[in-house]
Design brief:
Elements: H1 10-13, H2 26-32, H3 41-46, H4 51-63, H5 66-73, H6 79-92
């Protein structure tokens, strides 16, 4: 398994089989990992179709302080406020 097949030797690459993996649709991913009804759509989008990433981000999301979660439900419209919120979330994670 490699993310950079161009870096493999031609003799190795000639013996390999290419199996592309595509991101899963949100509804399929939620079925696989036991979709929680309270998963925010932004959290599901953040995972880019990877079920393992959803499980990881659910744990991190649960660790955020309630006041930050409330702010994330109603995103700021001003760029400076959005950047401030992003910094606070990064620090909390």
């Amino acid at each position: 398994i490699t993310a950079a097949p161009e870096r493999l030797l031609a003799t190795i690459l000639s013996r390999c089989q290419r199996i592309p993996f595509k991101p899963l649709p949100a509804h399929t991913m939620l079925q696989l990992v036991g979709g929680a009804q309270d998963d925010p759509p932004a959290l599901v989008d953040l995972t880019a179709g990877a079920p393992g990433a959803l499980l990881l981000w659910r744990e991190r999301w649960a660790e955020l302080p309630p006041e930050l979660l409330a702010q994330l439900q109603q995103l700021p419209t001003q760029p400076i406020d959005a950047l401030t919120l992003a910094r606070e979330v990064c620090e909390a994670l």
